[in-house]
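Page 37, top half.
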Amino acid sequence: MNLRPRRREDPEINLTPLIDVVFLMLIFFMVSTTFLRESDLQVSLPEASTEVTAEENAPVELTINRQGSFFINGEALVNSRPETLRRALEDAIGAREAASVRVVVRADAESAHRLVVRALDAAGQVGLRRVGIATIPVEE
């Protein structure tokens, strides 16, 4: 009979299964991830195929005609300077809170892009945040 106390072996932690699981997860995420190529993006003009539903508060209509004249709710502005446009927008929103007022920019297709940017800039300076650009539906 062997009366000597047995020496216990120290427990080992086998890391092989853990490493295998980590590598499988890494492969899964690499395969399922979508990589975008930012350089392949092309800019094209938007088309609108849906209509916007009407809300309770009537929006402020800012119209730009082909000659570059501005109109707010059908009334012509004296000139197309940014200060005049900003004051006219402030008058159009009146006592309403600027953040809740909708503005619809109706620019002629042949009007200069700088005029649309000027209108959007003036709306931002007044505090208008709900700005949309009117389009015509695409005929299929």
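Page 37, bottom half:
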Amino acid sequence: MQTHLTALLFLLPLLSNALPAQDPNSNPNAQSQTQNEIQITPKQIETIAPKSKSCDSAPSKDECATAAQAAPAISASFNKYKVHSRAEQAAVIGLMAFESGDFKSNRNHSPGVPGQGTRNMQSPTYNQKYAASLPDIADAAKQASDADKVLDLLVKNKEYDFGSGAWFLTTQCEEDVRKRLQSGSEEGWKAYIRDCVGTEANGERREYWERAVNALG
């Protein structure tokens, strides 16, 4: 009996070392949360907006964002506003890429409406609404002397700058438009552009949307 006990005591440390180590990341709930996170990659952004590989040709370098910079900011916006539909994601990214010139601008520099901008190139009216929804700049935006000052508050924060597309979709588009868009059809995309964004669903915008659909699968 003493011999068997001694042998067992000798084997216990070996058996303990043989057990698989507990991975702190192996929590099923944690894995589920990670899998549910939306991840847009720089490669996908480059496919949608080919000129976003670099800022070499950007008219204003301080406004330009590369695909590597845009991807995590866009991913964060989809997670924040719970845009889980790939069809909706494609429409929003395609619109932002077109409006910002492949993410090279976040202000309207052509003669037009002062204060128009963010990557979604929103009008000042929507920028004011958007800023009012963001607690840490809402008061400053309310007290801003003009539309350009409101835009300044938005574009200096990358999260807010790139978050405008997802915010607009989820707060300004009618549910019927979103349902049609979620179908993934061209008619659904046209409804989003015409009935919510309020602009022409022309060939250039469609090209960006088509690339986005292909990139996101």
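Margin note: Residues 81 and 171 are 9 Å apart (CA to CA).
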